[in-house]
Structure prediction request, 349 residues.
Amino acid sequence: LDLLVIGGGVFLGRAVVEAALRDGHRVTVFNRGRSSPAPQAGVEHLVGDRYADLAALRSCRWDAVVDTCAFTPDAVASLLDAVEGSVARYVLVSSISTYADFSQPPDEDSPTRSADGEELAMARSIKPGGRGKASSYGKAYGPLKRSCEEIAQGRLGDRAIVVRAGVLVGPGDYTDRFTYWVRRIDGGGRVACPGDPRRAVQIVDVRDAAAWMVRAADQRRSGRYNVTGAERTLSMGEMLETCRRVSGSGAELVWVPEDTLAAAGVAHWTDMPLWLPSARMDLRHFMNVSTAKAMTAGLRFRPLRETVADVLAWDGGRRHIPLQAGLSQAAEARLVHAPDQLGSEAIHQ
Ligand SMILES: NC(=O)c1ccc[n+]([C@@H]2O[C@H](COP(=O)([O-])OP(=O)(O)OC[C@H]3O[C@@H](n4cnc5c(N)ncnc54)[C@H](OP(=O)(O)O)[C@@H]3O)[C@@H](O)[C@H]2O)c1
Prediction:
């Protein structure tokens, strides 16, 4: 394939580039050249801002495009204006956050919600520098991704592959949601863990997701696919035990009841990464999304221990960088040593 990756410099995009090179494809990346060092050897780099100038793309032809940094429908529309005539497949990286409701486990045909006028106006008001980041869009992120999907599928039909990604983990993960647990357990001592160790978690190694996207483009697949871990195969307890085993840490996992976490003001997902409170029925199946369709189309998973080992190795070189997610040491100490004395002010500082 002659493959163009829009973005391609940081986490998922870099993994897509590596997967494509491994499969013997010719790869070009298009980005502003701000977020990352030069692309990998053998990769052509076109420098440009997708919101300002797509001229560099108009004179070239690609068999497939993987778009890792589309967050608004106008970004998809302008890109397609530039490449639509030539590409056989356009892979849009979307999200499971497009689903309207997680009280039931979603599959690709479950109801979604697209962005309303207010959300589109909010997205338009974001300054150019912030438009390429998920965190800029808050609660509108999922609906805006759905609106991106509508443009892609509406214009390209079967030439569009919509990838609804779940929680991506692995080396290079700048969200730190999974890395927190790997680093924290490696650090040893009493580790505060959320609620019920049997609760399901669903994560996918970014390299497995990326490899599938490249193959899906190569095989000219079509339509929407959930791409995350296989449902109901991993619990929080198994995930954290794997971190302990692989790091060889003597950490003690202390499972703190959900009502204690709530009383202490621990924020799910951010203070306690990958924890969703069982009382949140609207999020009940957020980590129980059907991946049967992508698995039938070849999605495969490496063992979790491999992901943990690789995150340990990668994170070893960046321990001086404070993590974006997880409890502070002091907040954790109060949870695991003196939970009876917790008040609502106890956690944040
Ligand atoms: N992380 C998760 O768990 C998760 C879950 C579900 C879905 N997703 C989706 O997966 C994707 C993850 O992306 P990633 O950050 O890992 O991808 P990435 O391709 O590794 O990094 C983002 C790239 O976008 C480029 N970029 C940003 N703004 C740009 C602009 N205006 N014009 C041209 N290039 C621009 C950046 O380069 P420059 O700054 O140099 O331009 C960077 O190379 C996102 O679409 C996200 O919504 C992620």
User: Anything to note?
Assistant: Residues 7-14, 31-36, 49-51, 68-69, 93, 95, 131-132, 134, 165, 167-168, 175 surround NAP (CB under 6 Å). The chain is about 35% helix and 15% strand. The longest strand covers residues 89-95. Confidence is low (pLDDT under 50) at residues 343-349.
